[in-house]
Specification:
heterodimer, A: 227 residues, six-stranded mixed sheet, 10 helices, 39% helix, globular, B: mainly alpha, ABC transporter involved in vitamin B12 uptake, BtuC, two-stranded antiparallel ribbon
């Protein structure tokens, strides 16, 4: 896969895979192309090559159709609809669904994130960063995705809240088999969560392997774990 | 526990408490500011009313109040149309007045061609103009990136010229009388010494009902939710699977129907001709700005304020008369926007980073 912003080619041809039920993390420094990778999957930028999801080609489709195919994207900076209430954000998350269980799902994520229940009528813009991240994740889950894309979920959050949120990700994967592709700079928490990991540098995948193996890789330790 | 802070953590808690309470005082101050400005507004209003009643008698005063309300509700309806497009696209639709004019002409043509009651003709025209506006959105606006505001402004400006010329070609520039929309033409009743046409009363009710229905549509339906999501953030809405184009199309259709209603209500009191919405549009822009551009309730309230200021300013100050009344309305807006830049009811854009 390649991707470009206008004339600037950001991804130089990368290849990676996520299996059903797996948590895969992509590590990389600022500007490596992590966010671009996720945006490319959702076709928010022009891409070359091929992006296959459940045997179907995503390249060239509209973003709204990719959501319908079962991919939910929690963007960097959370992307909550700040003029809408918490509850309306969750309802908007279920926009692509036509079944009658939307209300039940809202209750379900409220019990997973009780803070959101307390703030259900409050505007999303008035939430704290951690609460917004919870809302963004819950909203993405409202579409009942098969694959969850998470763009730097730890960004700008206090360490304790990062731990909380990653614990929830772990539960989602363990209890419901949720498949996740996470891009992170916070390699420590990300490698704890992940089954496998890739390292992205300047638009190219330079390393890949099981999370435990990468954790002990000297280059990764130096660059991303800091010891 | 002793009152003296003994440990470090006690000191920390004490300083936290101090900080919180000074923050609370700050909040109270914000509330005070609002209450004070509201009080000043009320005093000015009451003072003006007493002065006006002493000067011209209560009958004239109330007559002007009701005239002002009549104009104001129409500005409200137009302002709602403007706000809908603004919420959807982030720009003001300069063609809104001409779209309303075309809608009113359509109602006029339908009423004449099929010999049906005016109100029914307006309903049909609202429906038709919604369809046409959806088509305009698809053909003229969809090709542009919705975040490219300048391109959209240019399109609405060209639409303004095209529609105005088109109406001139079809209906020429001589005034035509709109068929009556409501029963009881020219029948009046007396309230507080002022004579009010029943048709005026129906106009107020119609606009309030329409505003209520639009609010209901936006807050209780799925397409309404999508519309609010898109107006909050284009990119996030895309990631939720919302089809941006169709949602904006819905906004255009709804605004066009609302505009046609407003245009028909204006035409009821004046003659139909291609330029008849020009002055109304200025007041409606003013109302939309004053209300905060993204608030439907604000548009309604601000429309009424503008209508009242126009009638009162023009009526009681000889130097202003009817010619300078728009200037007074614009002056009031300038004043309020200096005090409160986001308009009376607009949402302040505060973002947590």
């Amino acid at each position: 896969m390649t991707a470009r912003y206008g004339a600037i080619q950001v991804l130089q041809g990368i290849e990676f895979a996520v299996e059903r039920g797996e948590v895969v993390v992509v590590l990389g420094a600022n500007g490596a192309g992590k966010t671009t990778t996720l945006r490319a999957i959702c076709q928010m930028i022009s891409t070359g090559g091929s992006i296959m999801f459940e045997g179907k080609e995503l390249s060239g489709q509209a973003t709204s159709e990719i959501v319908r195919a079962g991919i939910a994207h929690v963007p960097q900076g959370r992307g909550t609809l700040n003029d809408l209430s918490v509850e309306d954000n969750l309802l908007a998350g279920a926009y692509v669904r036509k079944d009658k269980e939307v209300g039940a799902d809202i209750e379900r994520w409220f019990s997973m994130f009780p803070r959101l229940r307390e703030r259900r009528t409050q505007g999303a813009g008035s939430l704290s960063g951690g609460e917004q991240q919870m809302l963004a994740v819950a909203r993405a889950l409202m579409s009942r995705p098969k694959l969850l894309l998470l763009d730097e979920p730890s960004l700008g959050l206090a360490p304790l809240i990062v731990q909380d949120i990653f614990r929830v990700f772990g539960e989602l994967n363990a209890d419901q088999g949720m498949t996740m592709l996470v891009v992170e700079q916070n390699a420590n928490v990300a490698l704890d969560l992940a089954d496998r990991a890739y390292v992205l540098e300047a638009g190219e995948m330079v390393l890949s392997g099981k999370a435990d193996e990468l954790r002990h890789d000297d280059a990764v330790r130096k660059a991303y774990l800091g010891y | 526990m002793s009152s003296e802070p003994e440990t470090e953590s006690d000191t920390a808690i004490a300083s936290l408490n101090r900080n919180v309470s000074s923050g609370m005082r700050g909040l109270v101050k914000v509330g005070d500011y609002r209450r004070v400005s509201l009080a000043i507004g009320l005093v000015l209003l009451v003072g003006f009313s007493i002065w006006a009643i002493n000067n011209g008698g209560s009958e004239l005063f109330f007559q002007r109040v009701f005239d002002g309300l009549g104009n104001g509700f129409i500005y409200s309806a137009m302002a709602i149309a403007l706000v809908l497009i603004f919420k959807a696209t982030g720009v003001v639709n300069f063609a809104q007045g001409e779209m309303a004019m075309m809608g009113a002409f359509t109602a006029y043509a339908i009423a004449n061609a099929f010999d049906i009651p005016g109100a029914l003709a307006v309903l049909i025209a609202m429906f038709l103009s919604a369809i046409v506006a959806a088509g305009i959105e698809r053909v003229l606006l969809r090709p542009f990136d919705p975040s490219n505001h300048l391109a959209i402004v240019i399109v609405t400006l060209s639409l303004f010229l095209i529609l105005n010329a088109l109406a001139g070609v079809i209906w020429a520039f001589d005034g035509r009388a709109m068929p009556s929309l409501f029963p009881g033409r020219n029948k009046t009743f007396t309230l507080l010494g002022a004579e009010i046409e029943y048709a005026d009363l129906f106009t107020w009710i119609t606009v309030l009902l329409a505003a209520f229905l639009v609010t209901l549509l936006l807050n209780k339906t799925k397409i309404g939710l999508a519309f609010r999501a898109v107006s909050s953030s284009l990119e996030s809405s895309q990631l939720l699977g919302i089809r941006i184009g169709r949602t904006l199309q819905f906004g255009w259709a709804l605004a066009a129907a609302m505009g046609t209603l407003a245009g028909s209500l204006v035409a009821r009191t004046t003659l139909l001709e291609p330029n008849f919405m020009g002055r109304v549009l200025i007041y409606s822009f003013a109302a939309a700005t004053l209300g905060g551009l993204d608030s439907l309730g604000g548009a309604v309230v601000a429309g009424i304020i503008i209508g009242l200021v126009q009638t009162m300013g023009g009526g009681y100050v000889d130097a202003i008369g009817s010619e300078l009344a728009p200037a007074v309305a614009l002056g009031v807006i300038a004043l309020i926007l200096v005090i409160k830049p986001s308009g009376l009811f607009g949402s302040k854009r505060i973002e947590r980073v």
